[in-house]
Every structure is written in structure tokens, then in C-alpha cells.
What does this fold into?
Amino acid sequence: MLLRGGLLRGGLMGVAFLVAGLMASLFAFAETRALEGGRHDYAVVTSQGSSTLSLIDRERHGVVAEIAVPLSPAGVAVAGRYAYIASTKARAITQWDLWQRRLVARRDMASEPLGIAVHKDKLAVAMWYDGEVMILDAHDLTIESVIKVGVEPAGVDFKADGAMLYVSNRGDDSLSVIHMGMMKEIERVPVGDAPFGVTIDDEGRYIYVANVRSHSVSVVEAESYRLRGHIAVGSRPYAIAVERGGRRAFVTNQDEGSISVIDGEAMAERQRVHVGGYPEGIELDEERGLMYVANWLDDEVILMDVKGLRVDRRIAVGEGVRAFGRFLTWQ
It folds into this structure.
């Protein structure tokens, strides 16, 4: 009886472990299927001091993952489930799968990369010390082309159709226009003093350039490359986000901890709002009526109501948050 009871108990325990294992496998499979089949909108935020990547769930408005990345990440670009990170001190470009939260590819560079942008299978990287933009294959990070631009290229942004790339050259106060079909610079436009962030509106009408030392935003006509003029904003403007249709643009002003709301058509600043310590990266989630702003000195990302320009939430992230680039994912 003891033997039979022992066998019975052992058999039941074995079945229990088997069932538990099967259930765990089913839950893991279901979670994977949910990730791969569902919609997952993140704010993908680089923090230079802590060398981390924070994933902020835009439905729940909280950090769902912190990923260690190569030293001193600054620039960020996203495409679907993938994020591309420019790590300055590590001199590396990395590609990350946001759903599986793992490293996909790494490309070591000869010098420090900064701004980064992606369109379909093309990845553009501003090489600060080399006066170049590198074009990489977005799938495996192989280098496809090296394009000479101005001195100290910082920000990069693609036109919506990917036909053109715009590069702010901080060292010689210019904007480079690159024709992606010809893979070369076709125009160089004088802008303000020490341009850094650059953004083109979704309709392809105006290119906005944040000038750090002249405390202004230059507005350039995308078709003619004509400089329309400069809009005075706050102290040390850094990055720019533009509403759909180009109604308003929002500019982070580092030194005074504010954002400027500008009208590119009227060439005027309409409003200035305090947001926190040394704001840098900025992007709009217009579906939810929110603006994301990365405050470097506060180690936080704030969510602002776009319509009322009120701070709705503050989310703690890594040390020295930068989020320089287009950092919101869209599924």
C-alpha cells in the first residue's frame, strides 16, 4: 500500500508539474502573441547619464521597462517595433527590438554619433566631429553612404516621403539639404547661430531649425530652400515638434525651462510656458492630445495637455534624459 500510495502521489505530483508547465507556456505564448498582434505605443526615451532607455507606455502613462544601452545615449529614432540609439561616448549605433526588449544589431563608429532619423530602410546618423552624415541600412546597420555636410552636424530629419533629409550644422550656422536619391547635399541654407534641432512639418512645407546661441527658430521653405526668417523664442532653444497641418510648433528652451509655442505662418511666438529643468526632447501624441517633454535636470518626462498647455503628469526616468529625435512609436 505504501508503495502504491507513493507511486500515486508521485504520479499526481508529476501531472501537477506538467499542467503547471503547460499553463506557464500557454501564458508566455499568449503574452508573445499579444505583443506581436496588439498595438503598443511607447515613448522611447534616452537618458545619457544613466545610459538607459526608458519605455513609457502611452496608454498607461508609466515606465514599463528600463534597458541598459551603450554609454551616453542621446539621439533616438523609432520605426514600428524597433528603436535606433546613438550613443556618443560608446561611439555606437544600436538597434533594439522593443517588443522583445533585446539588442538586434550594433554598429561601432569611428567617432561620436549624435542625431539620428529613420525612414523605412534608411537610417541617417549625424557624425558630429566628422562633418558627415552616414546612411545605414536600417535592417542590419551596414553603411551604405557617407555624405559631406557642414561643420558639427547635430539634428537630422526626413521629409515624410523620405525623398529629402535635413541636417542642422551647429558649427557653421547652416542647414544641409540632402537628396536621398542622389545621396548628396544639394543645398546649404544659412540659418541662425548654432542650429541644433531640426524638424520638417508633415505636409513638407516648412523646415524649423532651433538656433541655440541666437535664441531663435529659423523657418525655411522646403520647396525653394528660401529662408523665411527667424522667430525669437526663449533662451537656448533645443528641439522642435510640429502639429499636423503645421498649425503650431513647440520649441524647448533649455536655459529658462520653458517651451515656446510658435506660429510658422505668421512668424511669431504666441505663448511661452514653464515646464521644468532644462527641457530637451519633445514630441506630440496628437491622438491622445498630449505632448511629451524630456526635462534633463529633473530626470523626468512630462506629459502636457496640448490644447490647454497644462502639465498632466510627471514620469521619473533615467539620469540626464535627452530623447533627441522622434521618439514616439506608432503601430
The chain has one helix and 27 strands. The CA atoms of residues 168 and 175 lie 5 Å apart.
